[in-house]
Structures
1.
Amino acid sequence: MNVRRSAAVLAAAVAVFGSAAAPAAFADDAKPSPSAALPSGLYGKSDPKFDGVFRQSYALLAQHTEGVEPAAKAVDWLTGQQCASGGFAAYRADSSEPCNSKTAVDSNSTAAAVQALAALGGQDKTVKKSVDWLKSVQNKDGGWGNTPGLPSDANSTGIVVGALVAAGRNPADVKSQDGKSAYDALPKLAMDCGKDGGAFGLADMKSGKLAPNAYATAAGVLGSLGKGLVVSAPKKSEDAAPKCAKPDTATQAASNGVGYLLDTLGKTDDHLMSSMPGSTDQPDFGTTADSVLALAAAGQGERAKKSAEWLAGNSADWAKQSGPAAYSKLIFAAHAAGLDARDFGGADLVKQLNATGPAPETSSKSPSDADSDEKKDDDGGVSVWWIIGVGMVAGIGIGFLYSGNRKKQQP
């Protein structure tokens, strides 16, 4: 299978599973087979085949954001997943076996791990190896695809930018062999004003053309602004929506994307709706949380807070069904909106997250203490079915994380 066809399959998988309820196999109540016992250091009870590293990275980063010191074995499990090349695959059942050409390392798992491990500290060598690997698979246009060789997309490029920043690298200085950085690639992934509304696009499987997509837009805005998953609430909120203009720079592309998110959120009571066929009138909790981060990063504090408050009042069932990555995304949203993750619509998100894995070393710090601390301081051989699986996780882990409860709601 050639790269272009693989890219199309990935795009389709992300488009479908990124905007729809995750299949039951990806919900947290989907147990792995009895013969595949879960590692004791891993967060979540669902089969980790497609999202183990991702959900672990989110969980550890969310705990750190709230002043919780994760369990040592949870951190050890994550670092043990790294390949000698520096890249991370979605999950390796036997990390004692060396990675080979069939190990499906990917940019998204690697970038998520970098953001978590860089925040925790004490993992400089692991982080550097991963950043070096990410640099080695950078596309000529300056961006990243999900796996080496795939065309750049806004979601992968956005999360890699967050990893570079977390590792102390200036994304503008990380350039391809053609001298391009992520800030050159992202405007090319942005749509025009008018009918496309300035959104970032996701490639259509059949035509290969970009189509406006809220999931891609939230990631594209964060990447274009040089932000990662942890965004501080803005001290002063912008009052007006930005004006859309030609996206000839990353800054303008981000501004346009913010306008698109504001418009889309405003149509449905400050939250996004699923665009999956057959999921009429179903909320998209995960991408709403992503949008909170993007809006806060752009200074739209009041609008970010409104969407976060909607999540606080409506996301409990979704988070319970979806597991640690969902709790983590809500914690990131609460942090970006200036809300209390320990009293989020009456729920203690930190306690709920901690309960999905090994007990943390300590959780004595308050969010304000954590904020004070923050101020102080082989790729290849990828089959089409693996790409489809990773595409599913792109929807689950990065953007949408839907509930597996098909009877009550399929966000």
2.
Amino acid sequence: MYVLHPITVHFPIALLLVSTLFTFLALRQMRGAWETSAYHCLLVGWFAGLVAVLTGIFDAARHLTGPDALYTNELIGRVNAHAFTSIAALLVYGLALLRRRRRPDLLEDAEARRGYLRLHVLGAALLMVGGWLGGYLVYVAGLGVR
């Protein structure tokens, strides 16, 4: 059976990071189009990220369990770190999405804006660490390609 997870991760990573970029551009240029685009990237990226997490759980269970699994505790630890950071990123971006949906004028209030921007920055950092760990699992450890 073909590995599903690598196919589903690229769009959510790109969309969520672009959402963060567009949010900062909206603040810098004070144009509503950037903020609208940031919101749509956040919305679609979050749902695509949910699909990526589900396929990741499925693929990890398939590769790391059963009689043919010859993986070490170190590799399983890295898989768990990848899963933790990626799920944490999805949760953080989910909180940002929830805040934005509840308050469409969020960027106009200084206090609410700071919390929203912190969520975006934290989510982007977690997403990059999780993506790096995923790349390590494929390109260094060979998970899913052997």
3.
Amino acid sequence: MRTRAPVVAHRDEALRSTAVLTDAAAGAHRPRSAGSRFPVRWRARYRLTPWWARVLAIWALSRVVTTTLVLILASVQGPNPWTGAKPGYVAFANMWDALWYNIVAVGGYPSELPVTDAGHVGENAWAFMPGYPTVVRLLMLITGLDWGPVAVFVSVAFSLGTALVFYRLMLRVLPSSNAMFSVVLFCVAPLSPLLQFGYAESMYLFFLTVALLLLLERRYALLFPVIAVMALTRPSGLAFALALGVHVIYRWVTRRRNPFSLRDGVLAASVAVFSGLMGLAWPLIAWIGTGSMMAYTDTELAWRSAYIGYTELVPFSAWFQGGVWWLGTPFGIIAVIALILAFALLLFAPPVRRLGVDLRFWLASYGLYLLAVFFPQSSTFRLLMPMFPLLGAMAIPRSVIYRVALIVLGIAGQWGWLLICWGVDGADWTPP
């Protein structure tokens, strides 16, 4: 009896392939009007096109649209601290924090922390992790090219890799058509221009997507190297450790209906501990490199000082401080509480539940991490990018009107984000 399942599977696959070929032949030979012949042929060709080719086509078309928007904005960009007027694409794509990554790539990290006139730690390179600038630096040495074009190339390459792996991730929880539309939403999302700028997000999202896919496939051992690189590219080790910890508990509680061997349990728990250690690795490295135990956290706090001054890092306080700064009391506090409740309800919405428990564990863990340590301002949009699995929930409805509307809104959102957060207009206070 055990030998029949593979035979049946192969037979079903053969029948599906035959059906596709039959549809293609019918579209080519059956008498049809000119208005109906082409849709059938295109549908047949689409079915016969490999999944990776479809993703590649979606990604390429989206990059054409995004690059066009970027070039339009660059053509009207005035002089700014990073470029002259009307900069070329490479220069325009390496503004803002791209300069900090450039500094890390060519000069490394300071052994002494800069101090302001008031005696506080100032902004410095320790806020930017070494994963992305290290990759760019290696390619710079190999090719002999400068930072700008290599940084853009690395980001673009990782964005394609992310799109390919994201489809495989969504295919674990959604039908193929929904998984493919998830890729469309990822490629046209409002912050997708950042995937081809000199920022670490593209590389980070690639390794995060690989890590989530490995988690869903229960390939725990392979998570060790992926987490190591991911946690040194963008701050995420602690959030992923929490997601893994909840995953282990859930699998243990449900082991009667979903077997969870002792070996897998020990391995998964070990990965969770390792992720937590990697989440603490960079603050420890900054301590060793500067001699200051609080080097990393003091550096991060320097960026929010423009809003609320220099303060201590008190977990779960920054969002309420930000709410008061933006909206005053009590509306700022009420708004933050409402956001927390809305996010909690979102995780239990039927479309989000379709994503499965593990992806929701990640969404909840990362949301809790942001609530604990991040101060909300214009960079909040960029910090929300790791929640991109939610695009899978948005891709579930099949209405053509709905899907076209999402694509249009995504592209419009790109233009809005570029205007608000990327383009520089005088004394700009909305960093991306």
4.
Amino acid sequence: MQVSIETTSGLEQVMTIGVPAADVDAQVVTELKRISQSQKNNPGPGFRKGKPLPPKVAKQKYGKQARLEAVYQQMQQSFFQTVQEKEIKLAGMPKFEPVVDEEGKDLEFKATYEVYPQVELADFSAIEVEQQSAEVTDADLETMVDTLRKQQAQWNASDAAAEDGDQVNIDFEGFIDGEAFEGGSAEGYGLTLGSNSMIPGFEGALVGSKAGEETTLDVTFPADYQKEDLQGKPAQFKVKVNEVKKPELPELNEEFFKAFGVETADEAEFRSEIRKNMERELARAIRTLTKQQVVQGLVGANEVDVPSALLDQEIDRLRQQAVQQFGGAQQFDPKQLPAELFKEQAEKRVVIGLLMNAAIEANELTPSDEKVNELIEEVAATYQDPDQVREYYSSNPEQRQQVEAMALEEQVVEKVLASAKVSQSEATYEEIIRAANQPAQ
């Protein structure tokens, strides 16, 4: 078998392979036998059912089909054998093109494919990371308990004036220059005051209103409002308040504690469990923010060529996620979504993956049992039966592999931090949780 490899552009290579005619002929015979066997119950006129066709007849009937399949088999086998021998890192499936494909002659074909880029990582010392620290204060705990109570609140109609945090049911109609505009009206609209779900000034103007009252609000649409024809325009809204509802917070008792998975009648024990959960959440958030900075540092310090095959795969993944997120309609083909919608995000993901893999290889990292167990314990601690979680990961290799992948990423972060310029800063619990929950830039 003769092989030559040429790099055409960027990460694309073309491999030209010559396969002896005898190898192709032998494969044709194999394919003819397979086809003949598969057709023995439908041999056609003049032949007995259940008996394979004679070789000569089989060649007349199925020779072309057998050669097509034999050539494809030979191209695949020869190509992937060469890839293995030469340790080529394929970044996608090849495209085959026969150059010489004639009976009695050596087969010659070309395979066009992409390879993974060679990533030479820049020195980690150029990366800057600001590590934040915080603690869960008594005030943070009180805020969390208050939030949990509000989640379980009973909403009761009230004749009292509406306050921030109350729910109001309203009818409204909006006008610009005295004319009603499209999308500016609703009836029976439920609104929580202080939720900032309406344009600035709208909710605040309803504080102090009572059920049955009508009022006119003067507001201005933001300059960056989603509808361009409304951006920056002053408007008036005629509003009728149909109902005001105020929350009745539940008592801190055993029934309330149980709703959040804490089996106790002791308020101090409940608060202790909530604090532990907040501390775990805080630790995860700090780790997330640190990792984001490390990843941003790696991306900023290294230029990476992106294989189009990997980019296409990632775009398809994002398309699938988008369809699932919006109901996962079976009749909707994700490929109908324009690739451009996902290209930037997909490219960033691919680059991050390539850099992470390069760091793992360069530092010869393998998943640390200690780190894997630490991550599993972190999950187990949030369940009532931690042993059940541990057993789940120990008996499910695929799930454990996912944790091992996370552990490897954590180890990369630790490796980078050991050489990077790391500064320390203090923040509040709320600041860190909010920052960690924002989409990564």
